[in-house]
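Quick one before lunch.
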Amino acid sequence: MLEGLRKAFQKVSNKIKEKVEYKELGEEDIEDIIEDLKFDLIENDVAYDVSEKIAESVKSKLVGLKIKRREDMEGVVKNTFSDLLKSIFDLEKVDLVENIREKCSRNGPFVIVFLGINGAGKTTTIAKIAFMLKKNNLSSVIAAADTFRAGAQEQIEKHAKNVGAYIIKGQYGADPASIAYDAINFAKSRRVCAVLVDTAGRMHSDVDLMGELRKIVRVTNPDLKILVVDALTGNDAVDQARIFNDGVGIDGVIVTKLDADVKGGVAISVASIVRKPIYYVGNGQRYEDLNLFDKEDYVNSIFS
Ligand SMILES: Nc1nc2c(ncn2[C@@H]2O[C@H](COP(=O)(O)OP(=O)(O)OP(=O)(O)O)[C@@H](O)[C@H]2O)c(=O)[nH]1
Ligand SMILES: [Mg+2]
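Model of the guanosine-5'-triphosphate complex:
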């Protein structure tokens, strides 16, 4: 994970180290190095505008800097980069488990609608969340509001069984909003803590399906709308985040398939462009492969 970014920052750090002996860093010293950095970031799925911003920011922090000893340089470059990345992830944090527990104690089910293009990992992530809630003694009901894709109902039903969650299903072609609504009523009458609404995967360009999502949101009035993005979709993840945010509105993001992602830039791009927090990351196909996104860990793993 994240090898691409790790290498990119290591490379620029080494090159800068070579440049400075006992002198002040001039713009001309690092111009090429910064251009290279920008290119490497783009190669590793950091969106163009974001790469440019990071590169400019690194440049302005390093130019004019006087470093007494060569060894200090590594620390300075590392701190510059890591402060910069951490500031990108400096977004509101949500403790999902605590929020659900709190709302449950006030009699209301906590409703989450999961959004994302097909194959992003919505259904798997919902199963992982239900599993995590179960471990925290919180009950959940899954609304199988994907009445669009063949096999979707059976897929989620199997997951629900495996993780011990309730499920409310519907006929193919049925109105997804009504299934979500039924699931909320079910949760209210059985005092179930969380309602997890699975939606049909859709291309972000699909206008009809976007309208259908807005209807689900209107009917369910969710506590959270979470966008699920696949890290392997690279730069397209930024477009997905923008379009879902403009079309439906999102509160936060879960990035899946980080276990298979060698680049690592998607989290940076999405957080930087839509300014929404990343709640969790998916690290594999098992139910336990869901981890809280921690900006310190993420950034430290790039610079370790
Ligand atoms: N390696 C890995 N695979 C994952 C992860 N999350 C999901 N997957 C896999 O990605 C594939 C698609 O996942 P789904 O959960 O079905 O995706 P979806 O968004 O519900 O897809 P649609 O229902 O078609 O919209 C499945 O094979 C999952 O096992 C992850 O974190 N790591
Ligand atoms: Mg699905």
